[in-house]
Fold these 3 entries.
Entry 1:
Amino acid sequence: MKRKLFVAAVCVLAMAGLTACGGSSVSYDKYDLDEYIKVGEYKGLTVAGYKVEVTDDEIDTRIEQELEEAASSQEVAKGSPVKEGDTVNIDYVGKKDGKKFDGGSAEGYDLEIGSGSFIDGFEDGLIGKKIGDKVKLELTFPEDYGEASLAGQDVVFNVTINSATRMTVPEYDLDYVKNTTDYDSIAAYEKSVEKEIYKEKEAEEISNQQTELWSKVLEDTEVIQYPEKELDYYIQFNSDQMDDMAEQYGVSREDMLANYDFGSEEEFAAVNEDSSKLRVKQEMLIEYIADKEELKYTDEEAEEMIASFEQMGYDEEMVKSQTGHDMDSYVRIELLYQKVLEFLLDNAKIK
């Protein structure tokens, strides 16, 4: 498993399904790619069709999720019983043999009932008790408790339930639909949920088709020779990334390699070379098809992608430090990749 994580470790940003590490110095503009790769047929390939269905259960589940997300925390009235899931504010004092023990007392502590934060019996002992009650809990610490002086010992907790809050899920009815959605009827709202799920499932199926076609074209592409500059850049970049991670975690390079199940520098070098060759092959193939078919992307598409990266916290500096690419070159390869995937599917035969 760790070995599989290696690629992700040396290239943190793997967006749009393509691991596009490398630097802004990596460019194939000056190459005649016909001298570097021999590309098989990529138009008219056959791919399986798909059928999308949305069930009533899926619609119900999505609505339940939305209701839970809309839940709000409300104060539980004084005198009301505590329920599992409530967050109670308590004062408690723990005693062993009539004497307080270290770490056994607190005031104004917020405890979620059912979280398992306290020893067995503590949270269950508060369920059904009322807000404002004083509760006496006679409990026993587990035999394997971390504090030896308490392991297996009988104790007493005196607990005061000061208050409680409860997450309240809104009732699913016409008022909810009218107040929280753009629809005036339950039927119209559920139809919109169905369409949303349908679009998600359809997008997933289309992505699977594109990935299958890309894999076929990649497999059917022969590398005649690798451009040394680009290949060497990737190899060095990946090695530098390993050093950076070692420094970040305060360990040696040898320890970092071992963490990813590399027994030696030689073993790492072999995997590094193979993964770097794969990246170069992918990028040459993308550039080749994009050039042959005159695939372009718009400035608006580039701006949208940059904005989406920045929204996720990936600014220019982070993108470069994580991938070696500047923002523009990273966006270029990602958008061209998307265009190639779309072209392959548009020109495929659906069986």
Entry 2:
Amino acid sequence: MPSERPKPIWLIPNLLSLDAPLVAVAWLYMFAKTWRVNYLPWLAYVSLALVVWLIYVLDRLLDASMGSHRARSKARHEFHCKHSRTFGALAWAAAGIASVMIIKGLPMTIYGYALVGALMVGGFFTLSILSNAESNEIPYAKNVVAGLTFAYGTAMLAHAYTGFEKEALIRSPEMICFAVLCILNISAIDLWEHANQSNDIEIKASDELALTLPLTLLGGASLVFALRDPDLTTRPFFYAILTGAALLQILNRTRSQWSTSSLRVLADAALLVPLLIFTASSKT
């Protein structure tokens, strides 16, 4: 029998579910710098990475175990299903280590944030199970909850060290813009796959517009927020949001030139490159 072709190196982070934790850690750093957090322990970064990785692994194992058409079409789900025992053991280890870090190394105020985050994660997995029943439909509700949960979970660790009221996080323009960027990033692949599977020109145009319009609005909003900041404290952050939206827009316009696997990796890169823009603009 022919041996399995080795996976390209650039796809390994996606197959191992390492892409999302990297994005979360990068944006946690940007949130902490933007909100002038004087001290954010390394445990916050590590625990966030572990929790995000755990959630992504469980979601992919769940999708693969349910055998949906959507899951079977994704290499990363096949990879997780093939190595389910290994990922299961690592997931238990990640859960244990993250729990110890949170309990021992993070302040009590984080528990109030974490309760809301846990409810959001529960809603995400509920919608994840339900969305598999309609494999040909784009799971907008799941994507919205996933984006909100990812953004809230990332931002809350920095916000817990600011001394601000918890309710201020939900009203924060930084968190809201990042949540929208996350939602569009998650929805992008679904829209691109949906368009590729159809021969209807109107459906293809509709799927492209469903991403183009909100990305344009997000880019415009981030630019307005950046220019309206008299103290320049949040301007680098909104430049980062603008960069992420612009990169996703470029991918949306050039998606026919890339494979599905390449688009997944590039969509993740579109949320990592803004860290360079944030760092560069923070020094000017």
Entry 3:
Amino acid sequence: MSYEIVIGLEVHLQLNTKSKVFCGCSTDFGSAPNSQACPVCLGFPGSLPVLNRKALELGAKVAIALNCRIAEKIRFDRKNYFYPDLPKDYQISQFNQPLAQAGALNIICGETEKNIRIRRVHLEEDTGKLFHQKDSSLIDFNRSGIPLLEIVSEPDMNSPEEAYLYLTALKSILEYIDVSDCNMEEGSLRCDANISLRKKGDTALGTKTEIKNMNSFKGVKAALEYEARRQADLLENGGRINQETRLYNAEKGVTEPMRSKEEAHDYRYFPEPDLAPFDFEESFLNAIEKDMPELPEPKKNRFVKDYQLSNYDAAIMASDKGVADYFEKCADLCDNPKTAANWLMGDISAYMKDNNISIKDLSLKPAQLSGMLKMIDSGIITGKVAKTLLIEIIQTGKDPEKLVKEKGLEQISDINLLEAAINQVIAENQKSAEDFRSGKDNAVMFLVGKVMQKTKGRANPNKVNEMLREKLKGVK
């Protein structure tokens, strides 16, 4: 492609508050339609908004985590536009004096690290939700007034892959600081993407399109990939990019026109007259900073230092707070943090993926995993036995040590039993035995595998390898 892709993302985050941002209505998800609405969030004349302090605290927490400069004074504005699920015909948002600006978030793309600048972080209220039927549309105002935090990046991403990495890194931070459940299926985390193309080497931005209606990070990546190809084809054939908002059709894998793209002046912003400007007390921000947990990046660095993990392994362990907490408990219980990390990234990760569960839903306690790993290290069971044992431990919740004794899965240490199995395998596989004697060293691994089958994985493969070589070479 002779063009450079330029991407900026706008993330809308529903904050974890019990009530809405400007009234006392509940924010519970899944309630009966229009059961969580009042004169304020329905925009009745004479009703007055009151800012939710918890929403402000959570917003400031995000701003601090993203290394933003928090404003000394913030103000709310009216963003005027008409839409059927916006009962006031305006949205209370922030324009000239947002909560925070000039932040940054690092992503790791391959072997390189890239800094993505955060332009602004601001508070606003959500709209209602439309349900379209064949000949009509219904409106549920339960979501109207839900507290949203909009996180706007600079156009610093140059590929759909970088956009995906940015979103996953951002979500990891948001989950660490516990400001939202980040559930995209329930609308707690939504993303709009702005994308444009320009000739490689140019500095001026091209005409952008905004893409909406993406319900997963993979969906964002796929939509951006399609839109980049569409714009490139248009430009190569002498066409012109229209500045517009487009919807992503996941079934067809295409973006489709929705409406012309609005600019700030189209919204006719003006100060919200019912909410006075707010000044931050120093003690307010100090209390939030004091309450901040360890974030993914410093946790990753600590895992490298304290547990001697590689940068890659440490990044995987630290990227998910639940996995990071689980790993640390295992690391404290067993003597081999690297092995615990390998099992978490390997068999346990595969099990969770196959069963569509997260680490918090995994019925395998850190003590159980650590107990199993100790038995491998002490030679009580083999790694192969442990792989089959793992599923049963998860499904039954039984203690690994008791389960090994019940099933008689202890590693075979009796030399006579091992020798009997080896003699039988050699007798049954004379060709492989002769191949080894004639110089084909790899043939012994086939025989090792056969012995492991005979012993149902209970033999020590290293000991079997050693004994086989001695037997085949005629060493007594």
